[in-house]
Amino acid sequence: MSSFSSFSSSYWAPVLAVLSLLFLRISLRTFGGQNSVSNPRRLPYPPGPRGIPILGNALQMPKKDHWLTFGKWAAEFGERNLIHLKILNRHILVITSYEDAEYLLSVRGSIYSDRPKLRLFRDHANWDNFLIMLPYGSSFHLQRRMLNEYFNSSAIKRYTGLVTKNAQALASQMIFSPRKFPEFNRMFIVATIMMITYGHEVKREDDEWVRDAEIAARSTNNFAPAGSHPLDFFPILGALPYRIWGKTFVKHMEELRKGAYNLSTKPYLLIRDRVKEGIAPYSIASHLIEENSSSDGEVLNEKDISGACGIIYVAGADTTTASINTFILTMMLYPEIQRKAQAEIDALLQGERLPTLHDRDALPYLAAILKEVLRWRPVAPSGMPHATVEDDEYNGMFIPKGTMIITDIWTMCHNPSDFPNPMEFDPDRFIEEGGSIRRLRADFRDPEDIVFGFGRRICVGQHIATAQMWMTMATLLATFHTSFPKDKDGKKIRPPDDHFVATSRHPKTALQSNFVPRSEAAVKLLEETVQSTEDWKM
User: Fold this and answer.
1) Which domain of life is it from (predicted)?
2) CB-based contacts of 161, cutoff 8 Å, min separation 6
């Protein structure tokens, strides 16, 4: 879920109608539910575009790709890399530089680790127990501790076999169904997440758990980004019938609620019953249920367990799938980079085996490609919003309590000072050549320090995400050459130009890829490896 959107959508028509009837008796400040701003030293806000009375900058927001507008504003107003906006009575701070984001969100994390109210998701759609939505407090800390036990850099080593098995299974499907890569990519990435989280084995494309999770993730896009609907600004409007927003809104709200149930409550209840019956396979959910069970059989912290487990798919599997799709796009666009990566893999493996996660340190160019994929098309260009828990002063500027904090990931990842020629896909920017030795540079800005967030809300699943990405990339490069398909006349079938300049999370689903086995020996090695792989147990 992204963090910002157009505030000039049709949703605001009924809001303005209601306000026209009520503004004489109820102030905008009361509607917004925010305290009056206290600025005793009368410090200036950070610079930003001038808005209009009451609406502020609402009408200046673009309908899509708002991070591109943030970049333009940063050049025009953000000499300090901070942009101040105001939408009605909500203050918004856009951070466009890594240094400022790291300082404010990490060093001053005790002030900048809250979430905006996100009332539509939390109060109306039952997403209130998901970690990604939680305000900074006891439940947030509890769920972070729960998940960190399973996803820290050391813990993910226990998933090496599962990650490898599913990457090889994906590659084997490309022998027979190369045009279905997007579907199989999602299936096998989700298979890893479902096994880790719930002990559920995905065997088919139409797996019910995968389908439920995908529909739930898709339902959030109808209200993306979180925090931008009028209900988030004016809680009092929540007392009115949903039909004032239209039939489509009512339908989408039903889907969003059902998604919350299918992501957390439904699988949690099933695993809880299996634990009580003594038939639950080991998983994060079953282990947390057992750890939090009292002697009389009551399970403590149920809401936090179901919320922590439920968010793993939305926050992990979907974004990892998107990044791998972007990788495939880049390999077709830059065949010379693909050949260079394959040469590195061949030199190490000599065609005798497939790559494993133990090879990561020995393949620096592949590591550089992974970093460049994350940087070139970040899947969450403006992250999820933070919020301040108290007033703050920074470099002579005033940042009020309750300010929504937007980290402009896109602009940070395309900063020419850190990444020269930022629109070019160039893994060599991260590589240092020393004689016959190739290694990652130690003096570069690492995109992984940007795209996974900052401070106390940094993505808890970043290590499993990069492990899945690397293993999938390495396996496909070792066994296939990827290219654009050709028509009957032998001409490459390329998507429309807007596909390549898209800055959204997934490359368009219309993208087709041609997977050609690199050799008969590569196919045989893949088939033998997949057949010999034993069922993975955690």
Assistant:
1) Eukaryota
2) 536
SS3 356: coil
Structural domain contains residue 43: no
Check residue 61 and report its DSSP letter. Answer: S
236, with CB counted inside 10 A (0-12, 13-18, 19+), is middle
Residue whose C-alpha is closest to residue 405's, from 451, 457, 452, 462: 457
H helix count then E strand count, the chain? 23, 10
Give the Cα separation of 375 and 332 in Å (integer). Answer: 18
Model pTM?
0.89
> Residue 5: inside a domain, yes or no?
no
Given a contact cutoff of 8 angstroms between Cβ atoms, the answer to whether 366 and 341 are in contact is yes
Alpha helices in 350-461 (DSSP H): 364-376, 409-413, 448-451
- Asked if residues 256 and 220 have their Cβ atoms less than 8 Å apart, the reply is yes
How many CB atoms are located within 10 Å of the residue 434 CB? 7
Mean pLDDT, rounded, for 390-398 = 95
Say whether 413 counts as a known binding-site residue.
Answer: no
* Rg of the chain on CA atoms, in Å: 24
Q: Mapping DSSP to helix (H, G, I), strand (E, B) and coil, where does residue 399 land?
A: strand
Work out the widest C-alpha separation in the chain, in whole angstroms.
78
Ordered DSSP codes for 276-329: HHT-PPS-HHHHHHHHTB-TTSPBTTHHHHHHHHHHHIIIIIHHHHHHHHHHHH
Q: Domain span at residue 199? A: 12-36+90-532
Q: Tell me the per-residue pLDDT of 172-183, one tens digit each, with 9 for 90 and over.
A: 999 988 888 988
Asked whether residue 253 carries a pLDDT value surpassing 60, the answer given is yes
Q: What is the DSSP string of 175-244?
A: HH-GGGHHHHHHHHHHHHHHHHHH-PPP-STT-HHHHHHHHHHHHHHTTPSTT-SHHHH-GGGGGS-GGG
Residue 68 placed within a domain: no
- Residues 26-51, mean pLDDT to the nearest whole number: 70
Distance CA 202, CA 467 (A): 19
Q: Answer yes or no: is 462 within a domain.
A: yes
Q: For residue 484, is pLDDT > 70?
A: yes
41 or 309: which leads in pLDDT: 309
- Average pLDDT estimate for 440-458: 94
Residue 230: both structure tokens together: 């009028």
Range with the poorest average pLDDT among 185-189, 339-343, 389-393 = 185-189
How many distinct structural domains can be found in the chain? 1
Residues 6+ apart with CB under 8 A from 227: 3, 4, 116, 117, 118, 385, 404
Q: What's 204's domain CATH number? A: 1.10.630.10
Name every residue whose Cβ is closer than 8 Å to that of residue 269 and which is 6 or more positions away in sequence: none
